[in-house]
């Protein structure tokens, strides 16, 4: 019930903010800031809202970066407001409703269409094709809406398959699963119970956010969130089969029990503890491995694999830098976004969170070379898919968890769960 209350609150705030008409005309975005980064043009006091660089260590890192930015742009002053991704949407929409949006707003992948469609974001005046010389096209696309670039990528966070090579070897397995059938077969073989109690999950699909586990499975099976013309597609046969796979893992194969682990559980990540043989997980699992199970690193016991069936897929989220259409200092704001998306700032942000650089050039950095999880993510960006794509996405995404849970708990069939979710999403999209 608490999650439903939160979802309604955010949806209400979002609708109210956009309903006030505080931004420019819907669908057109704001004017492009000056493309010049000349220090004579970039001036003024600007406000930055960021969900990254959190905590004392992160704030110290950002302060150092902004000192460097100040040296290059002495006429620009940056006031920072730190938040979390859990509170970011509310912060953004409250500032918009109040008529004083932040000049620079760091947002997640999938967030650009909802805000660009309402004219909240400024067109950065960048050429999307030109940006692909610095970033993989899959990284550029989430910042583009209706052919215009509204955001630059700063860092990525990805989800893909992770497995314990030592546990696989004990079971006589030498390679990761290459399709859904192998995933299920291996999961059953690797599951271990004692007296009926699960002590090792063959495949862990619960440690990761349920939506972010379902989506790469859906993409791997050929499904899509939305059609090219913006209609709901996540209840297609391919998508239903992906949720059926998750349901079979829990209900039929019993390779993991619901409640065995949950995202953010204090008990730690089962794969790292040896309580799971493989998982769909976040790239920053590597940080916990280094901290709590260094022998797994030393003995190269961790492997990675793309989720695959009809095609290979990897979930790609991340953090993007945007400029408010109503910023009074657009040149200064754009200069800050460009600075945060450049190598020094982006690498510092990735180091703190164990995340994946967006810039191609950073693939050869010492940070990436020392982190196999990040190496894998950067090497598989051609198979990456991102959520979102429609203006109503932020109002829709929160409903995925309940729908997926209803199937995993056997309360509804995967088809029923996704059909009901699709009907609700269609209604939301019609109102947007």
Write up what this structure looks like.
With 432 residues, the protein is of the alpha+beta class. It has 20 helices and 14 strands. The longest helix is centred in the first third of the chain and has 18 residues, at 2-19.
Regarding quaternary structure, what we see is single chain
Give the name of the CATH superfamily of the largest domain.
Answer: Periplasmic binding protein-like II
Strand content: 15-25%
> Approximately how much helix is present in the residues?
40-55%
Which class best fits the helix and strand makeup?
alpha+beta
Count of strand segments: 14
CATH top level assignment of the largest domain: Alpha Beta
The major pleated sheet works out as:
10 strands, mixed
Any idea what the CATH architecture of the largest domain is?
Answer: 3-Layer(aba) Sandwich
Give the mean pLDDT: 90
- Give the low-confidence spans: 1-13, 16-29, 32-40
The overall number of domains is 2
Shape: globular
Distance between the termini: 25 Å
CATH topology of the largest domain: D-Maltodextrin-Binding Protein, domain 2
* DSSP helical segment count: 20
Rg over C-alpha atoms, rounded to the nearest angstrom: 22 Å
